[in-house]
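[step 3/7] fold_predict: job queued, chain A
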Amino acid sequence: MKTRMEKLKLIAYSVGATLLLSTGSAFAQDEAPKKVDVEGLEKRYWAPKDKKFSVVQNRTYTKTKKISLTIMPGLMLNEEYSEGFGLDIGVGYMFNDRWGLEAEFQSVSLSDNDLQKEVIGLGGFINHGKLENYFGVTGKWMPFYAKMSFLSQKILYFDMTLGASLGMSSYAIQGSRSDGTAGSSTDSYDVRSESALTYGFEISQSFYVSKRMAIRFDYKHRWHNQDVFDFTTIGSSGNKLESRVEDNISLNLGLTYIFL
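[step 4/7] structure written:
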């Protein structure tokens, strides 16, 4: 009888030990940390470069190997004796999401400002030239790309581009219809056009509406040499007075269409 009781106890202990081991093993499996897919994270958020890493984003609106067409009207600023508007048309190509080129043509329409009109009305004239157009190429570098929430309703994607430009400007040398007496005339006219090498820089901000369309805002600042001639009154000989550096600033707002 005693032997039978001992056998039953031994069986009970064995069953209990087996249950404990099974429970502990299952608990250990539940608590074991999951393996992190480091390679997947690297591909998604990091770009390897010679065993170094840099932060990247999955760009929703990529520009790599794409052509763009931009049309932007703009306001001409910093004109000493003139006022008016310009129209920019640009065709760009991005080698990648960081570097690109853009060919640009800018047509400008300027007229005398109040200062020049007042001087001419008093019988005088300020010798100067008026910018007519510009054609050049801009090397573009895009260091910034980001997204932001608009009123917690929509995600807006945008980028900022810096550019260095080189081209040619055409300007009109101005003459006066005044005979040198007060009140004889209040406007100037184009005597002839001259061209000059032009260099400058620009800052562009683009907000993407879709993969094909973006709203673009530009600040452009350019410099060129301008010859100044004497055409102060009717019959002036047009002798060259000086050569000086003129700078032209424009603020432009328009649309960019991206060819996919």
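[step 5/7] annotate
The chain has three helices and ten strands.
The chain has two domains: 2-32, 62-259.
exit 0
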